[in-house]
Specification:
single chain; 209 residues; alpha/beta; Rossmann fold; seven-stranded mixed sheet; binds S-adenosylmethionine
Length: 209
């Protein structure tokens, strides 16, 4: 038995809504790239541990991670999630209804950097931010979400190990280059205290100072 299966078997108990998302993505020909179930559980716990009330997510897909995040919120909490593709957003909204969470989530459809710029202009602030969209724009997204943060805001970024590709210096494709860059930003940014956790595909976690 591998390490991940061992952890999942002991600690993760997906309900029917979460368990159905993978097969629905497959049947619709959409990519099967939701966070793995153990990362989903960890997201729920992190939101609960921080007592966050306003969540911002970048990269919704079918809403798996959104549901996990919202399940960590108190009753009066809210999540804004940003998704480029209307067909992904539509499926996510269906899953939010199935989970009974439709009133706790606002789905913004459009390019994340434009949507984030609008939120910055509106002077919105969030206390928990999860980045899980196109990796090449991670450095831009990090700069933008810092502007949407307050002291104590937690920023979490998925895929910072990129299946090990970030460790291979000869891999000079745009995604690993951008992920290496954002990981250095995370590690050395004067307004962040950060760590890279070897959970799932590598979770960057930062607290805004
Ligand atoms: C890895 S998936 C998100 C998975 C989701 N967080 C989950 O775990 O259930 C990445 C998503 O980001 C979206 N995306 C890609 N580029 C984007 C952009 N420029 N702006 C907003 N969303 C984008 C994709 O359409 C895709 O649905």
């Amino acid at each position: 038995m591998d390490q991940t299966k061992y952890i999942r078997d002991l600690f993760v108990n997906e309900d029917d809504v979460l368990a159905s998302i993978g097969s629905r993505l497959t049947s619709l020909g959409m990519p099967l790239i939701s966070v793995p179930s153990e990362v989903g559980k960890w997201l729920t716990m992190m939101v609960r541990m921080t007592g966050a009330k306003k969540i911002l997510e970048v990269g919704t897909l079918a809403g798996y991670s959104t549901i996990c995040l919202v399940r960590g919120l108190n009753k009066d909490g809210h999540c804004t999630t940003i998704e480029l593709k209307e067909e992904h957003a539509k499926l996510a909204r269906y899953h939010f209804e199935e989970a009974g969470l439709q009133d706790c989530v606002t789905t913004l459809v459009g390019d994340a950097s434009l949507q984030l710029a609008k939120l910055i202009q509106e002077e919105k602030k969030f206390d928990f931010i999860f980045l899980d969209a196109d990796k090449v724009n991670y450095p831009t997204y990090l700069e933008q979400v810092i502007q949407l943060s307050l002291p104590g805001t937690v920023i979490v970024m998925d895929n910072l190990l990129l299946g090990g590709r970030v460790l291979d210096g000869e891999d000079q494709h745009p995604a690993p280059i951008a992920v290496r860059k954002v990981t250095k930003m995370l590690a050395s940014h004067s307004h962040l205290e950060s760590m890279l956790l070897p959970v799932g595909d590598g979770l960057g976690v930062a607290i805004v100072q």
